[in-house]
Amino acid sequence: MSLFDQGTELVGRVRSPDGKLQTRELLDVCRSILPIVDKLGAGFMIVKHDVGGNIDRLATCAATKPDVYQADVFAMVRDDVAAGTHTGSSSVTKGLLWLKRAMEFIVALLERLHSDRAVSLSTAANEVYYQTLQRFHGWIVTGTFTVALKLVPSRDDFFSKVGVAPGDDGAMAAMHAYCTAFSGVLAEIQQFLADNGLDDPAKV
User: Fold this and answer.
1) Assign residue 100 a region: left if phi > 0, alpha if psi is -120 to 50, beta otherwise?
2) Exposed site from 28, 51, 98, 148, fewest CB < 10 Å?
3) 19 DSSP assignment
4) Is residue 59 within 8 Å of 27, Cβ to Cβ?
5) Distances, alpha carbon 109 to alpha carbons 23, 79, 129, 133, in Å
6) Is 24 left (phi over 0), alpha (psi -120 to 50) or beta?
7) Which residues touch 135 (CB under 8 Å, ≥6 apart)?
């Protein structure tokens, strides 16, 4: 089973029979993306660190009330808001928001590489960064990303590292299926945050 086949299988477990997004299963999908981030090069270590930190933050909170929080990732956010702690930079709400944004960047990058079989990884990463994350970044973070985007490997090297051979249409189809499935989950999280006034536009 390829990395992307495994990811699609994990996404299929995220929603419970009653349609709620389950925390442990959601975080498992996010963890499965860390090896992909790793293959983007040393410049993305800060992204990997941030993603891992937000995963740990949500997992730690979920463990405090497992019967409630494991069954519904949004229950943690609702309690965070009720307690008035959701605006803090280390809050569960901010953790979910930034985890979602990082996942959107990775999924959009993979989709860009799928839709254009000739585009370089560097070009695709630059385009997707400015479409997704850049508007939330101040000039210091943007500068850091600009450097990181120049250090990504070639397209062929990247796909080789994630186990996709040149011309492997089956693996590319699996990657697209994974992105499609996970995009639906991310869209649901985005809708929840937007509906509740939690999609903070402030730059970091």
Assistant:
1) alpha
2) 28
3) S
4) yes
5) 24, 33, 8, 12
6) alpha
7) 201, 203
Amino acid identity, position 123: T
> 3-194: which CATH architecture?
Orthogonal Bundle (1.10)
Distances (CA, A) of 186 to 36, 54, 95, 154, 183: 17, 15, 14, 28, 5
Positive or negative CA dihedral for 15, 188, 138, 144?
positive
CA distance 200 to 204: 11
CA atoms 198, 128, 49, 137: torsion sign:
negative
Catalogue the E-assigned strands of the chain: none
Query: Can you read off the two tokens belonging to residue 121?
Result: 């990884």
Q: Please state the separation of Cα 152 from the chain's center in Å.
A: 18
- Rounded mean pLDDT of 108-120? 96
* pLDDT tier at 5, thresholds 50, 70, 90: confident
Phi and psi at 67, nearest 5°, equal -65, -30
Token digits for 20? 């709620």
pLDDT at residue 6, rounded to an integer? 85
The Cα–Cα gap between 185 and 26 comes to: 9
Q: Which residue has the tokens 């299929």?
A: 12
Check the CA dihedral 189-187-173-46 and report its sign.
negative
